[in-house]
Amino acid sequence: MTAPSPIRTERHDDVLVIISDNPPVNALGAGVRSGLDAAIKQGVADDSITAMVIRCDGRTFFAGADITEFGKPMQGPGLGEVVDAIEASSKPVVAAIHGTALGGGCEVALSCHYRVAVPSAKLGLPEVKLGLLPGAGGTQRLPRVAGVKLAVQMTATGDPISAKAAADAGLVDRVVGEDSLEADAIAFAKEIAGKRPLPRASEQTVTPDPDAIAAFKAANGRKMRGFDAPAANIACIELAASGASYADGIAFERQEFMKLMSGTQSAAQRHLFFAERQAAKVDDIPAGTALRPIRKVGVIGAGTMGGGISMNFLQAGIPVTIVETAQEALDQGAGTIRRNYENSAKKGRYTTEKVEGMMGLLTPTLSLDDLADCDLVIEAIYENMDVKKELFGKLDAICKPGAILASNTSYLNIDEMAAVTKRPGDVIGMHFFSPANVMKLLEVVRGAATSPDVLATVMALAKPIGKVAVVSGVCPGFIGNRMLSQRGGPANQMLMQGVAPERIDKVLTDFGMPMGVYQMSDLAGVDIGWHRDPMRIESIRDALAAKGRWGQKTKKGFYDYDENRTPSPSPEVKQVIEEFRAKSGQEAKDYSDEEILGALLYPMVNEGAKILDEGMAQRASDIDVVWIYGYGWPVYRGGPMFWANTVGLDKVVAGLEAQGVAVAPLLRRKAEAGEKF
Ligand code: 3H9
Questions:
Q1: Quick one: which of 257, 314, 34, 303 has its CA closest to 133?
Q2: For ligand 1, atom 7: residue with the closest CA
Q3: What is the average pLDDT value for the chain, to the nearest integer?
Q4: N or C, which end of the chain has less CB nearby within 10 Å?
């Protein structure tokens, strides 16, 4: 028995309304495509029909091609054929848009002769975020309908635009009532039913705009670095703008689409799309678990971390009570939050009213007692277990029953903190990454006693505050920092063998990381964790710290820094390393860039395998999400575990053995079985 079609039609006088019902997002899977094709044919063939409307049930207009079909054999008509059939219709077709018309959905809309949208609708071509380009005519129809400038911006950034912006650009013909989309679309269809010729996007000409393309490239070059897809998107628009025929443009678009689709970058980016959504799910907690309402949040500590954490909630409209121990620190913390918001307002991100609204939700206080009515309290004080335990004891006494008590610790044991309270089930880790208002990762640390509804509540809270949450078990450094800690040893070993710090860093930044090991060390402070005895020199780090080379804050660390904090290799550091190496008797060794990369990253993958085997991470893709959103691992490489798959696990094992690192049993098993993470 064949499945019922997700497409149905309804007649409204002489207008045929074609309706898609393919939850959750009306993705354009095979059934939708063949249903649309058949419905258009039906409308064309029926003499009593004068116009057609395409709309979707549920929360959104088509949100794109069905990504789960990618890489599998194509079933039924391709989207390119379907949109061509829509455009070729002898009767006008109107797209009635609500929610998000994205990717293939936007291409369906572009192939319709007219588009109407509700004010809250958004239109976009986000394929670039999946390492792709619009493959159903979008790169050729959009510049014809809305101009080259907007087409470059929409395809190369992937960011959607509002219905109003679309109407201003000619991409939407009429903005209709928020609650009367279908009726307004039918009325519009009746109005234009007799108009000829039909406005077909593919038949329009493109006005060249080389300045807009050049300006876009100049402004966005850095952001697009390393990614293949943005340039491919721009190349398609450039071809359209060069006067090439529509058919030639489509042939080029297809060729570039196929190239991207079969490449590793798109596979990595599609992996991340699903990994991010999968990460939100906790395997042993049923969907639909009742959540605790979070109407008010307390944050303890108004330093960089506490301030950044508070900003996330204020932006989401959730009131925050922020606590400090001294008035000066409290004023400074609240002042920094205000300044950050005002700076964003200057850049046009917020209106002044919005800034005042958010600041109005902030209650600074010196008294922990003011946290009594908070639904969630997050401590962001310094990393000392005794101090944290004392604080949790106090919070347990102050906070109302059912309030969730969270720690922002980046490596300490949540279970120890929970144990001092009478409500260990309500205790959880919420590890934000610095700067906490910017970095998207939230590592949610599930203690041994954390109750399922507390975990579910915190996981669900991530989305409204703009975070991607990943669950970690309790282990030192959790998922991210535990893996990071594996990188320092091999890096220092290479220093000792005569590899310059700047070379090690360059290998990582060429790979796509935002900074290298020693740039990171200079940023954090070379003196962090230093014993403070300048006479005791047991490592290169000790030697640099003893010389006052504490990193960016003293304008010298592993690098020298100028007034603008631009780093340059340091002759003094070179000498320190040489001296230290000579004393230790360590012999110099040559490394290729590939070997440097393997030496740094394979031990991290190895640790990832242990984390997985111990059940500290639910799945390998969660580890990838941690590294992409918490540490800036290049998106187009899909995270460390995905990357290891692309390298080949047998090669990773061989590299680790050559380094003398004990191979994690899970990694070895998978490599021997020819499996992937
Ligand atoms: C394309 O169109 C190529 C064409 O140019 C060329 C073809 C030849 N397919 O995000 P949510 C699932 S490329 C399959 O949590 P929200 C998603 O996995 C495509 N599944 O909801 C999740 O499943 P689950 C271009 C999809 O309200 C569920 O739907 N389009 C797709 O926060 C809910 O998703 C895009 O890149 C899909 N296309 O956000 C748009 N989309 O519940 C991608 C979603 O099992 N989608 N799912 O975890 C989005 O940006 C967001 O999902 C959207 C809704 C804004 C639509």
A1: 257
A2: 135
A3: 97
A4: N
Assess contact for 423 and 400: CB atoms under 8 A.
no
The rounded Å distance from CA 67 to ligand 1 centre is 7
Going by alpha carbons, the residue nearest to atom 19 of ligand 1 is 64
Residue 287, pLDDT score: 86
Residues flanking ligand 1, CB < 6 Å: 24-25, 27, 60, 63-68, 79, 100, 102-104, 107, 126-127, 130, 132, 134-136, 138, 277
CA angle centred on 393, ends 387 and 395, rounded to 5°? 100
Indicate the pTM of the whole model: 0.95
pLDDT in tens, 124-170: 999 999 999 999 999 999 999 999 999 999 999 999 999 999 999 99
Kindly list the distances between the CA atom of residue 178 and the CA atoms of 99, 162, 169, in Å, as whole numbers in the listed order.
11, 13, 20
Q: pLDDT exceeding 70 applies to what percent of the chain?
A: 100
The answer, yes or no, to whether residue 16 has pLDDT greater than 60, is yes
Looking at residue 1, what is its pLDDT? 56
**From the candidates 87, 107, 379, 443, which is the catalytic residue?**
107
Q: Is 595 known to be catalytic? A: no
Place of tokens 């090669």: 651
Q: Give me the count of residues in the chain.
A: 677
**Residues sharing a CB contact under 8 Å with residue 288, sequence separation 6 or more, in sequence order:** none
Q: Which atom of ligand 1 is nearest to the CA of 134?
A: 5
Q: Which residues pair with 175 in a beta bridge?
A: 117
Look up residue 31 and give its two tokens: 């059934």
Distance CA 395, CA 379 (A): 10
Known catalytic residue: 182? no
Q: d(Cα 182, Cα 96) in Å, to the nearest integer?
A: 7
